[in-house]
Design goal:
The chain is built from six helices and two strands, in the order βααβαααα. It has 211 residues and is mainly alpha-helical. Helix 1 packs antiparallel against helix 2, helix 2 packs antiparallel against helix 4 and helix 4 packs antiparallel against helix 5. The two termini are 26 Å apart. Strands 1-2 form a two-stranded parallel sheet. The radius of gyration is 22 Å and the shape is elongated. 21% of the residues are buried.
Length: 211
């Protein structure tokens, strides 16, 4: 016989609330940064304001590469902290389950580190491809400083790939384990189950290794 559980909002600790504040602050800062990058490109293209190329390139690179990784990383910290506390609360309140919002925030089928490792892998692959092509030309032209910078970037990109692949696999295994544990603890309506299959960075059907 299926268990009848009351959905309640479990109180989460100050650590989770602090992580949530960091996520909100990162989102706000990201919005400002994206706006500044777009404004600099538009202003420079239209001739309204002359924006130095170094500033414009820095804004675009940070917006495209650094900001997504930082945001997803902060989100992962918040989701992981809440996930751990919700599992602990389940043992203390066996006839209760988290609210739908708490489930979607912290207990998706996708492990919180999956999108982070995925982004690191994609950016590492792009960096390896682009820098690997550019490095021989820099060396052929005798640009020592540029060669050193490109070589350092290439090494960082390769290291990111080396870390991302096993990290992705570990997150996939942990996601499967967490989903099994969640299913054992709580019976959920079909509509909620479907929402939990939606990945953080997309609107797919949850058909990924962590599901």
């Amino acid at each position: 016989m299926e268990k009848t559980l009351d959905a309640v909002e479990f109180p989460l600790s100050a650590r989770v609330r602090e992580a949530r504040r960091w996520l909100v602050a990162t989102s706000a800062a990201g919005a400002v940064l994206v706006g500044a990058a777009v404004a600099s490109v538009v202003a420079n293209a239209s001739g309204w304001v002359s924006v130095p190329r170094a500033i414009q390139a820095g804004l675009v690179l940070v917006t495209l590469f650094l900001l997504p990784v930082v945001w997803v990383g902060v989100h992962a910290v918040w989701a992981l902290r809440g996930r751990a506390e919700l599992f602990i609360a389940a043992g203390e309140h066996p006839r209760r389950r988290p609210t739908d919002r708490q489930l979607v925030n912290h207990l998706r089928n996708e492990h919180p580190l999956m999108p982070l490792w995925g982004m690191v892998a994609v950016l590492g692959g792009l960096g390896t491809l682009c820098l690997g092509v550019a490095l021989p030309f820099a060396l052929a032209d005798g640009a020592v400083l540029a060669g050193v910078l490109l070589g350092t970037g290439l090494a960082v990109s390769l290291a990111a790939l080396a870390l991302a692949v096993p990290g992705f696999r570990r997150a996939a295994r942990q996601g499967s384990e967490d989903r099994r544990r969640r299913t054992e603890l709580w019976s959920l309506p079909d509509a909620v189950e479907r929402r939990l299959t939606i990945p953080l960075l997309g609107a797919g059907d949850g058909a990924h290794p962590g599901a």
